[in-house]
Write a structure and sequence with these properties.
Blueprint: H1 4-59, H2 61-72, H3 79-104, H4 110-118, H5 127-136, H6 142-153
Length: 164
């Protein structure tokens, strides 16, 4: 009996070790699946938020018209219209900053971040955006400010035709 117990003890330890390793493998697989689900949900949230913002601007004839007028030449707007434009654009810019931050931390896929934020290039060189950015730039993180300013150097004129 004394000889059987030590060998049985070793067998039990090996089985226990295998069980622990199998449990860790299952946890790792579940975490990986949860990470994919989180990334997918985040990407969906970013897309839906920006889509809602664009849709609301487009459907609100007054907002869409104001937005286009302001982008072309903000000096033609009254003080109230300028304030409305800033509020309207600021809502969208906060969504863009959110997408930027999510991309930087790796929650949002890099290619989706590039496509989503790339639409900013349609407005960054517009007079209205320059008017807005001059007033609200400091409301954003330094990293996002730098990103927007890099976009300003690019020529994405095809995207900005709607404001011509």
């Amino acid at each position: 009996m004394k000889k059987i117990l030590p060998s049985l003890k070793g067998f039990v330890e090996i089985v226990a070790m295998i069980s622990v390793l199998a449990s860790l493998a299952i946890v790792i697989l579940e975490l990986s699946a949860n990470e994919k689900a989180t990334r997918s949900a985040t990407a969906s949230d970013v897309a839906l938020s920006l889509s809602d913002w664009y849709t609301n601007v487009g459907l609100a004839r007054v907002g869409g018209t104001l937005f286009r007028r302001a982008m072309k030449d903000p000096t033609t707007l009254s003080e109230d219209e300028q304030a409305d434009f800033i509020f309207l654009l600021h809502g969208g810019m906060l969504l863009y900053q959110n997408a930027f931050v999510l991309g930087q931390e790796g929650t949002l896929d890099n290619s989706l971040q590039a496509v989503t934020l790339g639409t900013l290039s349609a407005i960054v060189n517009q007079p209205g955006f320059q008017f807005y950015w001059g007033q609200r730039k400091t409301a954003f993180t330094n990293a996002f400010q730098n990103y927007v300013e890099q976009l300003e150097a690019k020529d994405e004129s095809a995207l900005s035709e709607v404001y011509d």
